[in-house]
Amino acid sequence: MIERWLHKHQLSLLFILILFILGGLLSAFRLPVLLFPNIQFPRILVLVDSGDRPVDRMVVEVTQVLEQALRSVPGIQAIRSTSSRGSAELSVNFDWSQNMSIALLQVQSAINQVLPNLPAGTSFDARRMDPTKFPILGLTLTSKSKDLVFLRDFAFYQLRPLLANIPGVAYIEVLGGQNAEFHVVVDTAKLRAQNIALDDVIKVLTANNVVTAIGQIEDNYKTYLVLSDTRFQNIEDIKHVILASSQNGIVELEDVAKVVSKTVPQRIRVTGNGQDAVLLNVLQQAGANTISISKEVEKRLINFKEQLPKDIQIKTYYDQSKLIIASIKSVGEAIVVGAFLAAGVLILFLRNLRMILIVSMILPCVLITTVLFLDMFKMSFNIMTLGGMAAAAGLIIDDGVVMLEHIMRRLSEKKKDKPIQDSVIKASMQMLQPLAGSSIATIIIFLPLAFLEGVVGGFFKAVAITMASSLIISFFFVFLVVPLLGKMLLKQPDAEHLEAVGPKLRYMYQHYRTFMEVLLSNVLWPILSVILIVIIGYVSFDQVGSGFMPKMDEGGFILDYTAPPGTSLTETDRLLQQVEKIIMSIPEVDSYSRRTGLQLGGGLTESNTGDFFIHLKALPRRNIQLIMTELRNRISTNVIGLKIETAQLMEDLIGDLTAVPQPIEIKIFGENQTTLQYTAEQIFKILSSISGVVEIKNGIVISGDAIIIKLDPVKVALLNLEAESITNQIRTQLMGTLVRDIQIEEKLIGIRVWSHKSLRERRQELNELFLRSIDGRYISLKNVADISVQQGQAQMTRENLKSMIAVTARIEGRDLGSTMDDIQKSMQQLKLPLGVSLQYGGLYQEQQKSFYQMTIVFISAVLLVIVLLLFMYENIFMVFSIILTALLSLSGVFLGLWLTGTELNISSMLGMTMIIGIVTEIAIFYFSELNGHTQHTVENVIVSGIMRMRPILMTSIITILTLLPLALGLGTGSAMQQPLAIAIIFGLLSAVPFVLLLMPALYSIFMRFRHNFPLGRG
């Protein structure tokens, strides 16, 4: 019935498939191009500002209140808070299934409900953490003649509007540079002489710089709005503001103060390749095309070049699209190289151009149609989806080869008077069940991956969906297209030529028969073989290191640095100039940018911290890990006091998004801060003695020292002062007070009133700060206050309402699993104080969660394959033989990982899971041949192996060769799929002899125990 239907509708079926191909081609032009899949990270960051209250008060009055309020939000899994003087940061982690848009609203609502109960002036900012918060493109603006005010204005008012309306751009962030400001530097002696208070200067400047509607007038049929405009137009207007008038004349501002054009006081510094610079960060919208944005930015900058001042240089310090293009190119080359290698195998085995043409048409058609499915699932071109296509290429070709080989064998057997079209269709119908079974066996192993959560789920679901889609499409193309093309192109002489056994194949068949007769003659040989394979697998598994995500050379990395607590911006800059010299001396460095008091994502930090982004030259060059190690060692040796961390950008980004940036994190819980800090120091010493553990931090973060001004209430009252007035006067003299601004064209330039620089350069000068009492007297600050220095306070971290300190470190030259084993053994010597407990977090915790999930996926895949095989054969001995063979093939996987020095990580575990399906697929083709015999005798077992030897060898070699470019890690993007490819290749290398030799022997043993398997050759 199916044969007649297929024959009747062959043209309509081909047309439908052509429509799918055309749909795939159209989707290829509209599909977003990204580096990684668009993952919705379930984390919300809450930043709280509450003045300058001490850390312990901050925890009690603000942090704990917010933690309790947030616990009521549905879906929250964990809350981690870090409190410092006057500020707090709360990291709120949700379940991965949570709708984060709704979660953000719920978090904001929960905080707003308790906000009235928090100290006055407390404010917060809640934001979702997702990849769009980080730049995809970074530009540096430098100039040898223009000042930083001009550079920032040029970037903000000309380049930002130029680039902001590019489709897909979410925001253009301008970092660094300086903003213009007018400074009114008062002369305290002259103020006293004129009996003018500092507050009077502020009030007069504020009152004389306004525009206000004061009424309306109707005249001559028109209504006029009456405005009172006393705004300043320039610096001269500020100088001539009248502060006071009397019979002796008027007092203008310039009589008691110096008015100058300056810049906003800075606590940050930004450089590019050693020069002060302004940075433009381009942030993209979710799902936007990174490559098209980058190209459009480049195009607009080229067109803008004529308007660009000659002494301004614009350079790119980071371009994610280059990494994406390099990754796409390398993965694409892997597919092409693999396809050519597979074509070589086809030529070697098939020796027929028409057959090779049929098989060769299947691969591009299936991959193009897969793009249509990616579009339907709202996915993108990225390293994971393209890697999935590359990994599926061999399996796609395999399906076509198996179908074509079977058709040719049946054609060689057909009678001369029978039409070739009937034989082709009949042969394809014979392969329907085994082809469907083998395809389902490979596809169903991806079903459990749909339940993966976390970073692993986000990344490898994309691989699973891509490969499953490719294999489903491949089945229909092979079942429908190969027979229809075979009817048109294949000839019986081709089949007879193909099936003619040459001397090499005859030699192989003879040796196979001899070996199988020996293997089947004694049950001891298969059993000993199984034991030996298990031993090899166990030893190999024990030698394989474990990791988390595959490591990829991104061509650039982040260097985070921290100077000692309280280090000034000037001193931090001096240390970093030494670092810049070291960076420039490394030959592989192409360019770099530096932020001090800032982060790459734009977040503000203390003036003693910041980061570099270091861009390396294109390959070939040294491995990025070697360069990072050299840089770390040289900085640690030559720049004393500076603590650094190095990480590639994607690693750093994922760490920020998940709040687990370090591989090693030992969390210490307890109530007493002194005890926690002592325990942290002990753990720091233990980690320092373990090989491969670098960049160790004890988790104790001390803020800079503070100067405490303690007012004496009695003296304040006796001298007719007020505490609030004293605070305001001190603030104005030290920080300055902004009094509105002046609009010059499209810019708003602030006016800052403050004291002379000499009064705020030294601690001792604080004693002499003048204060004006209500009755007009002037008093020095030392007369009403005690001034002392308070050492910096340690930040207080809490997790799930418990006090905690986290000791963190990174790993160099070792795998995560063995390093953590050594750490856990060394930690056994630590005697924890009463009430203190430990917990391992960081990437190790994520690894353990992911390994647990992947183990469940693996077991589920095996169980699903068993169910499929039972439905196909209803023979427990066949099923057990296939499953045991598939599991034994894992020994080859572990041996391959060990020999290649590859870690057991999420990618290689996915390869292990796929091996179960691939081995099952090969085994199904073997048993489809065996089931063609009425009796399963020894002779039939051997003949089935001989008949299936060529297609099994062909398909296995093709799969291995198509994966070889990925396994060799050729190019940038292939590194993510390298462990998967290695696992499949070595699994297949062991699976082929196991399926052809060991599986038939195991099946014969099981049948003998059933007492119905003849001992003779039948």
Spell out the key features of this protein.
six-stranded antiparallel β-sheet; 1018 residues; alpha+beta
Low-pLDDT residue intervals, each spanning 5 or more residues? 1013-1018
Number of strands: 31
The biggest sheet amounts to:
9 strands, antiparallel
Describe the global form: elongated
Helix-strand makeup class: alpha+beta
Word description of this protein:
- The structure is a single chain.
- The chain contains 31 helices and 31 strands.
- The chain is of the alpha+beta class.
- Strands 1, 2, 3, 4, 21, 22, 29, 30 and 31 form a nine-stranded antiparallel β-sheet that branches. Strands 14-13-18-19-17-20 form a six-stranded antiparallel β-sheet, sandwiched between helices.
- A hairpin with a 2-residue loop joins strand 24 and strand 25.
- Helix 13 (383-413) crosses helix 14 (420-430) and helix 30 runs antiparallel to helix 31.
Summed up:
The chain is α+β, with helices and mostly antiparallel strands and 1018 residues long.
List the helices and strands and how they pair.
Elements: H1 2-8, H2 10-30, E1 43-49, H3 55-70, E2 76-84, E3 87-94, H4 100-114, E4 123-128, E5 137-143, H5 148-164, E6 169-176, E7 180-186, H6 188-193, H7 198-207, E8 211-219, E9 222-229, H8 235-239, E10 242-246, E11 249-252, H9 253-256, E12 257-263, E13 269-272, E14 275-276, E15 278-284, H10 290-303, E16 312-319, H11 320-350, H12 353-376, H13 383-413, H14 420-430, H15 432-443, H16 454-489, H17 492-499, H18 503-521, H19 524-543, E17 556-562, H20 569-585, E18 589-596, E19 609-616, H21 624-638, E20 643-648, H22 649-658, E21 664-669, H23 673-688, E22 693-697, E23 706-711, H24 713-718, H25 723-734, E24 737-744, E25 747-754, E26 770-772, E27 778-780, E28 785-790, E29 796-799, E30 802-811, H26 816-827, E31 837-841, H27 842-873, H28 876-900, H29 906-930, H30 938-967, H31 978-1009
Parallel strand pairs: 7-25
Antiparallel strand pairs: 1-3, 1-4, 2-3, 2-29, 5-15, 5-16, 6-15, 7-12, 8-9, 10-11, 13-14, 13-18, 17-19, 17-20, 18-19, 21-30, 21-31, 22-30, 23-28, 24-25, 26-27, 29-30
Helix pairs in contact: 2-12, 2-16, 3-4, 11-12, 11-13, 11-30, 12-13, 12-16, 13-14, 13-16, 13-17, 13-30, 14-16, 15-16, 15-27, 15-29, 18-30, 18-31, 19-28, 20-21, 27-28, 27-29, 28-29, 28-31, 29-30, 29-31, 30-31
